[in-house]
Design goal:
The protein has 142 residues and is α/β, with parallel strands linked by helices. The protein is 51% helix and 8% strand.
């Protein structure tokens, strides 16, 4: 199995490129499209850390992600687990991306936050997982 995991806040275009190369890639912005993956992150990582009031990595289920056909990931939260992924999938490949400076990084991070926040603002009635997305935002920002 090949698994690509990027450092946090990478360019969305890299995920699109991996998709084009035949590596279906899970991106933060797509979490709402796979409800059980979002539920897993919300229950086993985000809410757990919030409830315990301490920084915690939780216990994510990577097999759930691959069971949906994803062979790559970009961005948070999966990028935080590169050591665990390397143990679980020894043939996994990682790509480290960098930014020119902190201002460019922050603009990218802000764009990602706005993208995720827009999903929650579309209308709480229409989006099934508004609470999980809100918990994710709280986890990322804190």
């Amino acid at each position: 199995m090949l698994c690509f995991s990027f450092r946090p806040y990478t360019q969305y275009s890299l995920g699109l490129a991996l998709d084009q190369l035949g590596y279906p890639t899970l991106h933060t912005q797509h979490l709402h499209e796979t409800p059980d993956i979002l539920d897993m992150w919300a229950d086993r990582v985000f809410q757990f850390a919030i409830d315990s009031e301490e920084l915690s990595m939780g216990d994510p289920d990577f097999d759930l992600i691959t069971s949906h056909g994803f062979t790559g990931t970009v961005d948070l939260p999966t990028a935080l687990y590169y050591k665990e992924l390397n143990v679980k999938y020894p043939s996994c490949k990682f790509i480290l991306t960098t930014r020119e400076n902190s201002e460019i990084w922050f603009k990218s991070f802000e764009t990602m936050l706005i993208g995720v926040a827009q999903v929650t603002n579309v209308g709480g009635v229409l989006v099934r997982h508004v609470h999980q997305l809100a918990v994710y935002m709280r986890y990322v920002i804190v």
